Amino acid sequence: MIPPSFDYHSPRSVGEAIGLLASLGADAKILAGGHSLLPMMKLRFAQPSHLIDLNRIDTLRGIHEEGREIVIGAMTTENQLIDSALLHEKVPLLPAAAKQIADPQVRNRGTIGGDIAHGDPANDHPALALALDATMVIAGPHGERRVKAEDFFIGTYVTALADDEILVALRVPALPQGTGWAYEKLKRKTGDWATAGAAVVLHLEAGVVSQVRIGLTNLAATALRATQAEDALRGHPLTEPKIQEAADAAMAICDPSDDLRGDREYKTAMAGQMLKRALRAAAARAHH
To answer: Which are the contacts of 169, defined by CB distance < 8 A and separation ≥ 6?
Structure first.
């Protein structure tokens, strides 16, 4: 299908973009990489009369360090994550996971901010943001505010972003030396969304799990933080029975929808499998 007609706006600054959102109201949509919005427009699920393209706002791109945090501009593409020496050194989970997202063409245009702001539970960055304890930096008419990842994802296509706000950056704590990490996802073919995915960040001290964060992809209306699974692991050695206990706790919170990728039971079972795989991979990367 052909999307309905719309007016196109190309602001040069965040302030100008927010001004457009404020004046155009609910009829306006933000265009980042286009991989989330344009398919919805073609299907007429989204019919904005105004598109505000963020591609000319240079301040929204780039990756730099501030203190112990890595700041990633919302318009940074997946390929830029993959190519970032800073991320490979400080938050290696992100470039490793970005390589698993979609296909090369999409990674060239698709942005981390678009992936997160769209609120699609099938997208990969929400679960990664949960596992990495990321903070979203949001700009609006009254200045900037910050929202933790676990407070940002509210429902399918629903986030903490108000209509007149823009996601401008992610702030991710640098992973301390010795951190274990992994993102494991099951997908039917290259470029497909995950049937189920699990992101893990953990620390081991003397063989015992001291800290762990787990995010799950495409297993509910939003990315899930598997806190019960984390609680099962914290303070214990990462034995196979413990890994199974964590998987069971994660599966208990899954509420996926039946679709062409599988029914609820299959997807939930795969969530357990992906988490077990991710925990073993993260443990193999962790060192003291």
So the answer is: 60, 71, 72, 73, 74, 113, 136, 137
